[in-house]
């Protein structure tokens, strides 16, 4: 028996068993008689040769279980003949059977994909070479951009740690990122999210809610210095960098300045916690004021006892002292993970981008 024959036999069985007959014998008999009497124009392949067990296992959906509006409406005419009703039910069952059997019937048929709707199918351009996408092969300018983007992402996510300088092949990439929109947009994104948090967090109203800010690459930008020193390609030279700091010419990071003013206006205490040493306090104050930062509540620099400590330990200890004084550290902004990780952490921390250097 062909697939069409099976389908039509099951269809007939369902139609007749639901319309007039109940038992297998009655249905089989009806099929035979209708066919032989030619009362119903059955499909030529119709034949009740399918075993009773199989036929009884076929789910014959009642016609009313189908959402008629999706198919058609049977006109509610009182004089409608049984033959018309059977034809309508024929069609419903046919649609159901076709939906089940069509994958089998077309399994070995090569279809034209353009005949099918494709709105959810994403297609690569024909000339796109994705062989090197997994990390090997490839080459050329695009490949370097992808690799350096992967490196920067890993750095910002603190997956690459520690590291001393940027990869040589990423010099142009880091330069472009820092000097163009990428860096500025990322800074703005962090500041906007921090501002949203600051506006919505509940303050105690007792002057004990603190926002901690790092200084370098958080409030002040040393980009003019790093632009002269390979954007992080050169190994950090503390003597050269201190000379730059002493000039007190680092500009403000504008998005951070806006956030800084906002958290002050909201009633936060602002504590500046920096890795700069006490010997740089005066130039740091000058630089902050020159750049537009004023009215902080505390400026904490590395003292003699803090020398040799990692930034993570030094800053955690200082935050711990704030908590012991009864302050609640609600927000913390820093460009290094060592600004925000450790212990006595803030309720919410905001990591600013910095692909130029790493401080443990
Ligand atoms: Mg910093």
Automatic annotation (TrEMBL):
Keywords: Membrane, Signal, Transmembrane, Transmembrane helix. InterPro entries: Acid_phosphat_B-like, Acid_phosphatase_pln, HAD-like_sf, HAD_sf. It comes from the Eukaryota. GO terms for molecular function: acid phosphatase activity. The chain crosses the membrane at residues 85-106. NCBIfam families: plant-AP. This is Acid phosphatase Class B.
């Amino acid at each position: 028996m062909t697939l069409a024959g099976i389908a039509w036999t099951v269809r007939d069985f369902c139609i007749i068993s639901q319309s007039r007959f109940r038992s297998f014998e009655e249905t089989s008999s009806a099929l035979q008689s209708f066919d032989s009497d030619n009362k119903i124009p059955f499909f030529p392949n119709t034949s009740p040769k399918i075993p009773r067990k199989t036929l009884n296992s076929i789910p014959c959906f009642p016609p009313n279980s189908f959402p008629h509006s999706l198919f058609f409406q049977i006109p509610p005419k009182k004089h409608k003949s049984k033959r018309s009703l059977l034809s309508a039910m024929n069609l419903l069952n046919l649609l159901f059977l076709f939906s089940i059997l069509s994958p089998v019937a077309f399994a070995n048929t090569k279809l034209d994909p353009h005949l099918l709707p494709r709105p959810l199918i994403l297609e690569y351009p024909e000339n796109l070479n994705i062989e090197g996408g997994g990390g090997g092969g490839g080459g050329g300018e695009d490949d370097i951009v992808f690799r350096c983007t992967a490196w920067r992402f890993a750095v910002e996510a603190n997956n690459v740690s520690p590291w001393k300088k940027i990869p040589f092949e990423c010099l142009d990439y880091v330069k472009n990122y820092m000097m163009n929109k990428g860096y500025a947009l990322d800074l703005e994104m962090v500041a906007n999210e921090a501002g949203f948090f600051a506006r919505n967090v509940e303050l105690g109203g007792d002057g004990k809610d603190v926002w901690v800010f790092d200084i370098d690459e958080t409030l002040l930008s040393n980009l003019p210095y790093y632009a002269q020193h390979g954007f992080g390609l050169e190994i950090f030279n503390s003597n050269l960098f201190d000379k730059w700091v002493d000039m007190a010419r680092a500009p403000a990071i504008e998005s951070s300045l806006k956030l800084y003013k906002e958290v002050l206006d909201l009633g936060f205490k602002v504590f500046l916690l920096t890795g700069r040493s006490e010997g740089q306090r005066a130039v740091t104050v000058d630089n902050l004021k020159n750049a537009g930062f004023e009215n902080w509540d505390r400026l904490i620099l590395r003292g003699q006892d803090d020398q040799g400590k990692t930034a993570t330990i030094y800053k955690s200890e200082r935050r711990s002292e704030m908590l012991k004084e009864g302050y609640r550290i609600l927000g913390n902004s820093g460009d290094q993970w060592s600004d925000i990780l450790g212990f006595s952490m803030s309720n919410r921390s905001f990591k600013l981008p910095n692909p130029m250097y790493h401080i443990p």
